[in-house]
Structure formats: C-alpha cells, structure tokens
Amino acid sequence: MAAPPLHEFDADLASRFEPTAASSKIAVLLEIAEADAITVIEAPFGRQELRGPFYVVAEGDRSYGAARHEFEQTHRPVGRNRWLKIAPVLAYRAAGTWRVETHIAATHETTVVARPGDWIVKQATGEVMVLEPEVFSERYQPAEGC
After folding, report:
1. By residue range, what is the domain housing residue 56?
2. CB contact set of 56 (below 8 Å; sequence gap of 6+)
3. Residue 127 to residues 2, 3, 79, 105, Cα–Cα distance (Å)
4. Would 44 be classed as within a structural domain?
5. pLDDT beneath 50, residues of the chain
6. Is 2 inside any structural domain?
C-alpha cells in the first residue's frame, strides 16, 4: 500500500483560533549540557528529535517534548511547572489522509498521518502539527472576530 501524500500547510484553508482558558499544562525544563545534543523521545504521535534544552510537557495522559525557545514564546508560566498557552494558531480540518512533517527549531521532529477530520495546526512559531478533533476542541476556540 502506498504512503499517503505529503501535505504542506495551506494558509488559504486556515482560520485563526486562540487557546482555551482551560488549556494549562505541566512542563518541566530539561537543561542539556551540550547545546547541539539531540534527545530522542517516543511521543504518542511519533518519534521526536529535540536539539538542546527542551521542556517535557504533560497534558492529561499524553507527554511530549517541546523546544525551549518555541515553548517560551507561546506560553506563560501560571504556577510552579504550570504553563498556559497564549499564542493563537492557524488551523483547518484535513480533507483526506495526508502525511505531515513537523519541525521544531529547524530540526525534523516527526512525520504524522492526518486523517479526514483531524486538524492541521500551524503554531505562531511556524511549527505544524496534527491534532485529533477531541484534542483540538479542548485546546482551541475560534478567535474573536473570526
């Protein structure tokens, strides 16, 4: 069976969404002594390769890594190891089965398969990700004026 086609984010299909007030998460910074060291994580959505210091993020029963710089640009601390996302995103629903490559801090993170109805999301930092409909609706709402 052939692999699904590779899909690039299409801004013409996207609408603006903002984080919900309930979308706080636990995140712990892992300092890495060597700035260019690559750490590999097996996240629920696939293998991640993170360069240098990064956050281990826990949302419900899911954990993953987030590059320090990108995470701190899009979140604000609201307590000890608790963060709230503040940056809006652009997003649209997948109309087919597609492969989507994600990158963090210019390092290839993973390749995810989006299925019809999944959300293709572009972060303010440029990272593109795929979210299942239930996860997307927990984290985001239409931005005011949209």
Report:
1. 11-142
2. 27, 28, 30, 63, 64, 65
3. 26, 22, 25, 8
4. yes
5. none
6. no
What separation, in Å, do the N-terminal and C-terminal C-alpha atoms of the chain show? 40
Distance, in Å, from the CA atom of 102 to the CA atom of 121, rounded to the nearest integer, reads 10
pLDDT value for 103: 72
The answer to whether residue 40 is domain-embedded is yes
Q: How many structural domains compose the chain? A: 1
The pTM score is 0.76
The helix/strand count (H/E) of the chain reads as 2, 14
Q: How many CA atoms lie within 13 A of 4 on its CB side?
A: 16
β partners of residue 18:
141
Q: Which of 114, 100, 107 is nearest to 65 (CA)?
A: 107
Q: Answer yes or no: is 123 within a domain.
A: yes
Asked if residues 45 and 130 have their Cβ atoms less than 8 Å apart, the reply is yes
